[in-house]
Design brief:
Residues 3-151 form the Ketopantoate reductase N-terminal domain. By secondary structure, the chain is an alpha/beta fold. It is built from twelve helices and ten strands.
């Protein structure tokens, strides 16, 4: 399979390198020093499951440099989704299917609006990986899971082919017949984790052990769950409690990428997490005061805080 990976960070870099090691023709779209390093020496992934390195020159600077492609994997930050969708719509790549491994529920809505419903598969991933230095991605533990599924019956064959490609690359992969529900389930959890750890500025262990912030965590997820149900996604009545029980099993030091970005002064994905819950809830007439408050508290930091004003 000819695969283009848009974004060679922790997610795109890890899964793309595994697919390349399994024999697929993988090209990354990267930038800056990371791009230069991949062109020079390939992309190195360090992992407890075994290190892999892609061939040199396995990256390009722009989508327009890609040739005919069977599958495009989108693994950029959410704020780049619109731009990527526009560039994909105008690129001469043949007629590839597109699989986003980004966070949130807005990603596929944006991609489908520009590329058409037929071309966009549903998927989500579970992994902790990051760029350690240009040309090097570090996988933090053994979790490396992807769930993929079709939105339309006509996508079933391609969805199965993508599932097989990940499975053959020794990635923990599951097919889904209700991928929208799976994506929403992850979204609800991620909104809860990101909202509370970022607002409290502490890891999950602190959040869950304090009576008031534990209620905050539960209510943030409950609001997102109500939006999901109003959007036609059938989440179980016990879903939030199940997620709270899961939070109790997480390492006390675990936090969210949004909390990490906040601490580093980086741009935040807030508009597509708690802010996204607010935007989705408004036309549905659903009150989401907890998510709205989190979005308001963190609003000054959305564009980053590397040079705060006095």
């Amino acid at each position: 399979m000819r695969i283009a990976v848009i974004g060679a960070g922790g997610v795109g870099g890890y899964f793309g390198a595994r697919l390349a090691a399994a024999g697929h023709d993988v090209t990354f779209v990267a930038r800056g020093r990371h791009l230069e390093a991949i062109r020079r020496s390939g992309l190195l992934v360090r992992s407890p499951l075994g290190d892999v390195r892609t061939p040199p020159s396995s990256a390009v600077a722009d989508i327009g440099e890609l040739g005919p492609t069977d599958l495009v994997i989108v693994a950029v930050k959410l704020w780049d989704t619109e731009d990527i969708a526009l560039r994909l719509s105008s690129a001469d790549l043949g007629d590839p299917h597109v699989l986003s491994l980004q966070n949130g529920v807005h990603k596929d809505l944006i991609l489908r609006s520009h590329l058409g419903e037929e071309r966009v598969l549903g998927g989500t991933c579970f992994i902790s990986a990051f760029i350690e230095e240009p040309g090097v991605v570090v996988h933090n533990n053994t979790l490396q899971k992807i769930i993929v599924g079709p939105y339309l019956a006509t996508q079933a064959t391609m969805s199965e082919a993508v599932h097989t490609a990940f499975r053959d690359a020794e990635i923990d992969t599951e097919p889904s017949t209700d991928i929208e529900k799976v994506i929403w389930e992850k979204f609800v959890f991620l909104v809860g984790l990101s909202a509370t750890t970022a607002a409290v500025r502490r890891p999950i262990g602190v959040v869950r052990s304090n009576d008031r912030t534990r209620v905050l965590l539960s209510e943030v997820m409950q609001e997102a769950t109500e939006v999901a149900r109003a959007s036609g996604v059938k989440l179980d009545e016990t879903f939030v409690q199940t997620q709270m029980d899961f939070c109790d099993t997480l390492p006390a030091t675990m936090t969210s990428s949004m909390h990490n970005d906040l601490e580093k002064g980086n741009r935040l994905e807030l508009p597509w997490l708690s802010g996204g819950v607010v935007d989705l809830a408004e036309p549905l007439g659903i009150a989401v005061p907890r998510n709205r408050t989190v979005a308001d508290i963190l609003a000054p930091y959305i564009e980053g805080d590397s040079s705060p004003s006095m």
